[in-house]
Design goal:
- The structure holds two protein chains of two kinds.
- By secondary structure, chain A is an alpha/beta fold.
- Helices cover 32% and strands 26% of the residues of chain A.
- In chain A, the strands form six sheets. Chain A has a six-stranded mixed sheet, with helices on both faces. Chain A has a six-stranded mixed sheet with strand order 18-21-22-15-23-24, sandwiched between helices.
- The termini of chain A are far apart.
- Chain B is an all-alpha fold.
- Classes of the chains: A alpha/beta, B mainly alpha.
- Chain B: One of its GO terms (cellular component) is plasma membrane.
- Chain B: Keywords: Cell membrane, Membrane, Transmembrane, Transmembrane helix.
- Chain B: It is found in: Cell membrane.
Amino acid sequence: MVPLLEVHGVSKVYGNTRVLNQVSLKVEPGEILAVLGHNGAGKSTLIKLISGVELPNEGSVLIQGKRVIMTSPLEAHKLGIGCVYQELHVIDGLTVAQNLFLGHEKTKKGLLDMQAMRHESRTLLESFGLSDLDPDSLGKELSHPQKQMIEILAAINMQIKVLLLDEPTSSLTLGEVDRLLDLMRLLAKKGLGIIFITHKLKEALAVSDHVTVLRNGSVVLADHVNNVHEEQLVEYIAGKRLVENTESNVSAHSDDSSEELLQVSHLSSGKALDASFTLQSGQVLGIYGLVGAGRTDILKALFGLEQITGGTITMSGQPYVPKTPTQALAAGLYYLTEDRKVDGFIPGLSVALNMVLPSLAAFEQNGMIKFRQIAAKVETFMRSLNIQVDRETPMANLSGGTQQKVLFARALLVPGIKILMLDEPTKGIDIGSKTEIHSLIRQLGREGYGVIVVSSEVEEIMAVSDRILVMASGRMVENYFLRGQTEEADLLRAALGGKSRVQSA
Amino acid sequence: MFNQRRVPKETGIFLILIGIIIVLGLVAPAFLTVSNVFNVLLNSTTIALLALGETFVLLTAGIDLSVGAVLALSGVVAAEAFGAHLPWEIATLLGILSGSAIGLFNGIVIHFTKVPPFIATFASLGIASSIPLILTSAVPIGIQNNVFQDIGQGFLFGVVPIAVLILLLMAVILHLGLTMSRFGIHVYATGGNREAARLAGINLAKMDIAVYTISGTLAGLGGIVLASRLGSGYPTAGSGTSLFEAISAAVVGGVSLFGGVGTIPGALIGAVIIGSLADGMNILNVNSYWQPLVIGLVILIAVTIDTIRTSRRRSVRITKVVADAMKPAESSRETMNAK
């Protein structure tokens, strides 16, 4: 069979850096190919080359055996390559049907034929098991996973042959992931070729036929999925055997030296209802739950970003009513958001300035910033957190894991910070850096910080927390005190809405 | 500030200015005389002052359309103050403060009502350009005061215009403020990523109000220089292309319309480029009807370069940038809750 898409020895060079080196892959009709790799391994560049955003410096791209040169995404589209990016582009003000036909609207005598589009949309939605979606719903009424489905279907509706999915499951909950994987299988069955870019090994193994692992711009593994197993993939991705160290460093903090940093009683805010818990210094508190369970709302309320509708908070014994982030920072709380790119850092500013942004006042003398002092401080933190970049590099040029470490350093630089709230601290971060960040979180606990970690990954919560709270539909349903005595399955069951056993700590 | 070890960012635009000067000097030897060079600088002063203030607003990804109108307001307010026999210091200060007041108003409206800057400052453009007409019934008011006259017409050592010295002094102060102070870094941060800046504890209300007030204050100062040069408070001063020349000067000088990128020296060089082109065309006897066309093309090229540069760097689609520019100043709470 002639492959739908064949990439032959492509390389891409930016300046002096070779980000892709002689990469080859192919996708046959009906095949799902998973592409795995670190951030910075070259996955994004590969997508850009295949989807016409950029041209390779070497090598060729063949579609159904014919060599093509794609100079724009539109051209790639016309040749049958559709790409669904992490950031979705469903238009809020248009209906589902209009989104599905965007750019190739059906017309009758020069006027839009809404009737036909609505009808075809319904057929399309039904054929992919999405009959619960109304073609007349507006884009803004859809949830994130629904938007993603619509975007995939819109690509299919344009008669594409190869579908590129860039980290499609990164913000989906478990059930939604399953639904997406089912959709992918269904599409493959209909003869489509799918390239599935992901960090998540389990998903890759569950759905794909072939896997390709990229490291430092080169293919280090390409095999049928039956010939590989998870451990082996981790090694290929990381390039080294990872030390399983999470179990060995159980909190060394003794109970008598810790003080109560935070007491939250019956807090309601946004989706969170009647949440009560305490946080001790030196403790890592994991909050587990599905996306939308109200976990983030608690953090936002504590940071003064979300209106508190009920309950009280005390910090180190004092009543605490957060109104603005500025106030929360002054009180000793730091919040690392879920979405670094959206609200975490200033892309055009240097690593150094991003790191000291909230603590600039400490480097000011007579109204002038002391850049030397900043440089010295930043270098110290870069060494201790193993950040290997020039401090003047713009933040945007760093990989996700490095950006996250810079933001950790930023939090630690703020004078008087006692509590760190980390929302999905390893989202979109490669496996190597993930382990590093997990041990960093453990270390922060040992150093006496109170840490709250919100995550939808059970493994992550289990790896870092001393105590785990489980949230479902806005309520705290479980409260596990001891680390190491919890089973993954317990957490999952609780999060999926088992018994509602609200406990106050 | 950001790349102390590397070549300053303004090098490129500075070389372009040198190129323009050399070309103009070759085709019109009169261009490169000392008195003409100062004349070019003097003629650029008002626009440059507007551009410096506008730079602060542009850096936060805002825009201030009211600066041209403030020129007239400030001049007329000063003239009225002289009419009321107030001393020159007070009259000048009142003129400048009238600009600050418009800027303060802009900042407050934009921050607290979330009206997009484009619309809010367009509204205050209307307000600021009406007040002088109402005050004067559209009749220019002459100013007879020797000290005040020297602001725009006086020379130090007989060659260096005082207005140019004022401009350079302002540029130095603003440059230091932008590169060496906490406030300056917060300006870049606010324009670079508004939400991230807020979460890093930056008080956005303070930032919005400060940058528009700075812009208005400098426009007020520009109005004083202009009134001094004209010898009167001219109720329709600045109603022409001043606003667009000021924004263009900043953009030609490398200040991005999309926020977070740009410098004071850049904006200053941009203003001098626009001024040199205008002056050069006068010397070359280019029909004055053609001059805005040439300047228009220069602006178009500069903005095009900025757009391409910005969209490459951030790989943001231009449509999104435009959509963002039309959004209210702070839609953060909404977007956060929508998640």
